[in-house]
Design a protein that fits this description.
The complex is a heterodimer of chains A (321) and B (339). Chain A is an alpha/beta fold and 321 residues long. Helix content of chain A is 29%, strand content 24%. In chain A, a hairpin with a 2-residue loop joins strand 11 and strand 12. In chain A, helix 4 crosses helix 5 and helix 5 packs parallel to helix 6. Chain A is globular, with a radius of gyration of 21 Å. Chain B is of the alpha/beta class and 339 residues long. In chain B, a hairpin with a 2-residue loop joins strand 1 and strand 2. The chains are: A alpha/beta (321), B alpha/beta (339). Chains A and B meet through helix 6, helix 7, helix 8 and helix 9 of A and helix 7, helix 8, helix 9, helix 10 and helix 11 of B. Bound molecules: adenosine-5'-diphosphate (ADP) (2 copies), iron/sulfur cluster (SF4) and magnesium ion (2 copies).
Chain lengths: 321, 339
């Protein structure tokens, strides 16, 4: 089967400019060489601490940020080499949902208008069929067609996220990137949106790239998970492997600090000390070595490659492979 | 002093507190008759979704409710024998930051961007302890060391924006604990942090509680955080406490349909990997607006177990065991469930 999406050695380096001549004095190595692939109907999760490059990676995959190097192939076609017209056609198939639905919905537009504009841009669903389509979308995400006449501020956070999802669905996409789509929602609303996303995926055979810092949510939603640290991928595996048999010390540490709703549960060792280092001056060797509870002499000298640690399981650590 | 007097363990007693906000939309009963107490050395967790009144509760103890639009409509806050609501502004100033301190989700709201960390912490010693600047600065550096900030001397000369989010939160804890308060109120102190840094801050708070014998009120929306830190828990919904219990009882025998619903709606780490995916159960609907609360039990429009009486009368807090109380009609008959 051809993957829907194939990302190879993707890099996004933001230049740091200083002085009146805007000289580039350095780079923020936000995404520093990641590879991933996504099959039709599959859900891949990207996890990691804030600032590790998750959002930048998502935006670069959609070509909303220009990658510094590397390739993004969609259904076998390299996005870098396609024409403007082809690119416009592709934007129908790849959509994004943001964390904060409020800031991504125009406050002066009704929900009907918000949902009709992508169809307008692409000249789809003309005449009476457009309102039919909007009503259908609203029902699909659990809203009443009646509510289409209202404005974003009249909705709760969860309902606004439903509108964001309806907008993403408007053009029948194949791929939806969710950038922390439930992180800003209240606990009792999170489950509603998670269930909605899972239901829509089954119904429309969607592929999801789910970016999140919440490891429990990612386990629940995703088939495979990629763990990022300082712009690099340190481990990737199917959810079962990753959660029962994590190989990389960073993944192990991340999993050990997730709070568990059981007062008898005691956190087990492996506590990460310190903060994530700056992506402007990443550490030598393995980027994780200054915080790693299991570092060895080699770790500060040599960067570990991603190596096979089991079937479909890769880890970049000198302890593995 | 009479050595036979039993030590009074009760440090803070909040009784029947009501805080109302007046606006063009009407009156929001943000806190509607809540009572709880805090023992010496105890960690009380207050948990609930956004808008349920957690921050208003915390601010009212510090007397930081803006009036107007806010108004303390009823209640008592007995701290170490005195009702804080009866104190003058001046008397309250001597308590705030000194005997009761508070930290927030965003440290920048209480750290001043134009002063160094060291200056801000030493200010506490100058203000409340009457120390001179030089001594106060030494004490400030010592506090930074106690909250495990590396190179405390160097850090004390830096400005808040030069610190990472986790370090800023540590600096704020240092400032809050500078005067050795009896109560530390922490309003979502880890919500903006990564889980890795959150774990460090929780461990730090638990360590400092032992070292300083501080009682803590921990406010959060995260039941996982509550389970890690709290000994007793109050669950709030729409301005009221709906369930109150020792932490172990709350998680083992959650009794209010809202608490039960919350616990069933969060994915549990490792569960799918071990047992396969089970559906997350949802609490239907949304939290009601405080300006349009339903009649009867505030939770009834979302409640699976609602029955006839629920939509007309607000239930009292009923005991299900000695320290476990639930605001739900199911338990009205002396703790026996009626379903
Ligand atoms: N437009 C930008 N210009 C400069 N730096 C950026 C930009 N966007 C993100 N960054 C930086 O890149 C790094 C990765 O950011 P981001 O992708 O937002 O991480 P995450 O989503 O994992 O929290 C961070 O250090 C961030 O400050
Ligand atoms: N300054 C204010 N003016 C008007 N209403 C307020 C104000 N502060 C809080 N409220 C009301 O009190 C309710 C509870 O707020 P808060 O205690 O901040 O909730 P949370 O549980 O999220 O901390 C809010 O829903 C809001 O209606
Ligand atoms: S390579 Fe070394 S430093 Fe990096 S994670 Fe593995 S053991 Fe730790
Ligand atoms: Mg992000
Ligand atoms: Mg709050």
């Amino acid at each position: 089967m051809q993957p829907l999406l194939e990302v190879h050695d993707l890099k996004v380096h933001f230049p740091i400019k200083k002085g009146i001549f805007s000289r580039t004095t350095g780079y923020i190595y936000a995404v520093n060489g990641i590879c991933l692939h996504l099959d039709p109907g599959e859900t891949l999760g990207i996890v990691g601490e804030s600032g590790c490059g998750k959002t930048t990676a998502g935006l670069a995959i959609l070509n909303l940020i220009k990658p510094t190097s590397g390739s993004v192939c969609y259904e076998g076609r390299d996005l870098a080499g396609i024409s403007k017209k082809e690119h416009k056609a592709l934007t129908r198939e790849m959509q994004i949902i943001f964390q904060d639905p409020y800031s991504s919905l125009n406050p002066r537009m009704t929900i009907n208008k918000i949902l009709s504009s992508p169809m307008e841009i692409h000249g789809l669903y003309k005449g009476a069929r457009r309102q039919e389509r909007i009503d259908h979308l609203l029902e699909k995400v659990g809203l009443h067609p009646e509510q289409g006449k209202r404005y974003p501020h009249e909705f709760s956070g969860g309902q606004r996220q439903r509108v964001g999802i309806a907008r993403a669905l408007a053009l029948n996409p194949k791929l939806i990137i969710g950038d922390e789509p439930v992180s800003a929602l209240d606990v009792s609303i999170q489950a509603q949106i998670i269930n909605l996303l899972i239901g829509l995926q089954k119904e429309f055979n969607l592929s999801y790239l789910m970016i999140s810092h919440d490891l429990a949510v990612v386990e629940h939603i995703c088939d495979r998970i990629a763990v990022m640290y300082l712009g690099k991928m340190v481990e990737t595996a199917g959810f079962k492997q990753l959660y029962t048999n994590p190989k990389h010390p960073y993944t192990q540490s991340l999993l050990s600090v997730v709070p568990v709703a059981d007062p008898r549960h005691k956190r087990k060792g492996n506590m990460l000390s310190g903060d994530v280092p700056s992506p402007i001056h990443p550490p030598s060797g393995c980027y994780f070595h200054p915080r790693c509870p299991r570092r060895m002499e080699i770790c500060s000298r040599q960067a570990p490659e991603l190596k096979e640690a089991g079937p479909g399981h890769l880890a970049a650590c000198h302890l593995c492979g | 002093m009479n050595m036979k007097v039993k030590p009074n363990t009760n440090l803070l007693d909040v009784k029947g507190m009501k805080i109302h906000f007046h606006s063009s939309e009407g009156v929001a009963k943000a806190v509607d008759g809540i009572s709880f107490h805090l023992d010496r050395g105890e960690v009380l967790g207050i948990v609930g979704e956004s808008g349920c009144g957690k921050s208003v509760t915390a601010k009212s103890i510090m007397r930081l409710i803006p009036t107007p639009p806010g108004k303390i409509a009823a209640g008592q806050i007995i701290f170490d024998g005195t009702d804080l609501l009866k104190l003058s502004i001046q008397q309250m100033r001597r308590i705030r930051g000194n005997r009761i301190a508070m930290i927030f989700q965003e440290p920048m709201t209480s750290l001043n961007p134009v002063f160094t960390i060291g200056d801000q912490i030493s200010e506490m010693f100058i203000l409340h302890r009457g120390l001179r600047r030089k001594q106060a600065l030494e004490q400030a550096v010592e506090m930074l060391a106690k909250v495990q900030i590396p190179e405390p001397c160097k850090r004390s000369r830096e400005y808040p924006h030069q610190l990472s989010g986790g370090m800023r939160q540590r600096a704020m804890i240092a400032m809050a604990l500078a005067c050795d308060p009896q109560i530390l109120i922490a309003d979502e102190p880890t919500t903006a942090l990564d889980v890795t840094i959150q774990a460090q801050i929780i461990d730090l708070m638990l360590q400092l509680k032992e070292d300083f014998h501080t009682s803590i009120i921990m406010i959060t929306h995260d039941l996982g955080v509550i389970a890690e830190i709290a000994q007793t828990v109050a669950v709030m919904y729409a301005g009221k406490i709906v369930e109150q219990a020792p932490a172990v009882d709350l998680f083992d025998r959650a009794s209010h349909p809202y608490t039960q619903g919350l616990l069933k709606s969060i994915p549990k780490l490792g569960r799918r990997a071990a047992k396969g995916r089970c559906d997350l159960s949802e609490i239907p609907g949304i939290v009601p607006s405080l300006y349009r609360l339903p009649q009867g039990c505030s939770f009834y429009p979302r409640c699976e177990k609602a029955h006839a009486v629920c939509n007309s009368l607000m239930p009292d807090l009923h005991s299900v065991s000695e320290h476990h109380r639930v605001r739900c009609w199911l338990y009205a008959d002396k703790g026996k469930r009626k379903d």
